[in-house]
Amino acid sequence: MAIEYGSEGLLGVLTPQANTTVEPELSILLPPRMAMLNARLTSPKPTIAARLVDYVESLDHAVTQFANAPIGAVAFACTGASYLVGRAVEDEAVARLSARMGVPFITAALAVCDAFEALGARRIGLVSPYPPDLTEASAAYWTSRGFTVGRVVAAAAPSGAFHPIYAMSAGSAAEALAGMTGAGVEAIVMLGTGMPTLGPILERPEVDGAPVISCMTALGWRSVIALRGEPPAGAFLRRWIHGEGWRERYAQRLGIAA
Asked: What are phi and psi of 114, to 5 degrees?
């Protein structure tokens, strides 16, 4: 069943409660005839780590916000939660919710894994906006998925902001990405669905030949091919990284030259 503003697919998106980046970046990444329906992940827990775990534990309730909307896939736009609960819990949740919803349930972390596999990358670099403890959990997660972390570069967090990640600028992300020069990795991921990464990736889609992805570009790519019923493919992903299909929308959104 097609809907007026999503004739090629409707994506259900689960976004952390204070995240200011997921919807704007997905609105740029999704093709014109694909649409998204957003639902917020909420938690009363007092710390970031506790909220991230709570999001996973509350997924069965969170997806009820979509009711009977004709979504073709669900995107869990929260990478940090996967690090903390670990691969076994994540895999079980993906299997359970995919079966319950009858459509692919895609986590941002597994979308990144699929992107690494499509690129043929095993040795990876991490650009992290996280505090040290979450960065360490992230590195352990990628190792558990069979990748080798070759270098980690921390992005500078803004001081006095409403959130240490969601208030980060694209400029800070770009400066951190430059720190990957000489890392000797096969692919680089800019972590977190809250750090703005589209501009930095368009400006520098490769570092020393290593393709640069982010949690959001990977999630967008994986969601598009899920809605199309296509397998993950490296050729399309490489063009996607260079802005094919979304560069113009990014420029229009920011009012800059494409």
From this structure: -60, -35
Q: In the numeric block, which tokens belong to residue 172?
A: 């800070």
d(CA 212, CA 237): 11
pLDDT higher than 90, residue 31: yes
CB atoms within 10 A of CB 202: 18
- What is the 8-class DSSP label of residue 210? E
Backbone angles phi, psi at 174, to 5 degrees: -65, -40
| Helix 132-144 and helix 79-101, axial crossing angle in degrees, nearest 10 | 50
Contact 40, 63 (CB under 8 A): no
Half-sphere exposure of 98 (CA within 13 A, CB side): 11
The chain-wide mean pLDDT, for the chain, equals: 92
SS3 49: helix
Cα–Cα–Cα angle for 186, 191, 196, rounded to 5 degrees: 115
- For 198, residues 6+ apart whose C-beta sits below 8 A from its C-beta are 25, 28, 29, 170, 214, 216, 217, 246, 250
Whether pLDDT at 180 is above 60: yes
Number of residues in the chain:
258
Assess contact for 202 and 243: CB atoms under 8 A: yes
Q: What is the mean pLDDT of residues 8-30?
A: 95
Residue 89: what are its φ and ψ, rounded to 5°?
A: -65, -40
